[in-house]
Design goal:
This protein has 113 residues and is mainly alpha-helical. The protein has helices at residues 3-20, 24-35, 40-77, 83-112. It has a domain at 48-113.
C-alpha cells in the first residue's frame, strides 16, 4: 500500500478513537502505527501526519459547531488575537507528539526483535 492509502485508512480508524476517547489514545495508536512502519523516517511521517490530520478534522468540526467563540476568547487570553493562528499553534502539537510516538513504536519493535 502506498503512503496515501495507508494514511487514509489510519485516519479513518483514528477518527472515532480521538472523538470519543482522550487525546493520549491517539498517541497509543501512533505507537502501534510506528511499530508497523518500515523505517524510522516513515514511522515519524505516518505517525505525525495521521495524528495531525485527524486532530485537524476534529478541531475544524468543533470550531463549526460553536467553538469559534471559545477559540476567540482563548486566542485573546494567550495574546494571539486571532483564532486561526491559535488553530495553527494547536496543530503543531500533534506533529511533534505523533512523530515521537511513531518513532517510539518502531524503536520498541527493533528492541524486541
Amino acid at each position: 500500500m502506498n503512503y496515501i492509502k495507508k494514511m487514509s485508512v489510519f485516519v479513518l480508524i483514528l477518527f472515532p478513537v480521538l472523538y470519543f476517547l482522550p487525546w493520549w489514545a491517539g498517541v497509543i495508536y501512533c505507537v502501534i502505527i510506528g511499530a508497523m512502519a518500515e523505517s524510522n523516517i516513515s514511522a515519524i511521517q505516518i505517525g505525525s501526519s495521521t495524528l495531525t490530520i485527524t486532530w485537524a478534522i476534529i478541531l475544524f468540526y468543533r470550531w463549526i459547531i460553536g467553538g469559534e467563540i471559545l477559540m476567540a476568547r482563548v486566542a485573546t487570553m494567550m495574546n494571539v488575537n486571532n483564532s486561526f493562528m491559535l488553530a495553527i499553534i494547536i496543530l503543531i502539537l500533534p506533529i511533534i507528539i505523533g512523530g515521537v510516538s511513531g518513532l517510539t513504536g518502531i524503536l520498541i519493535r527493533k528492541a524486541i526483535d
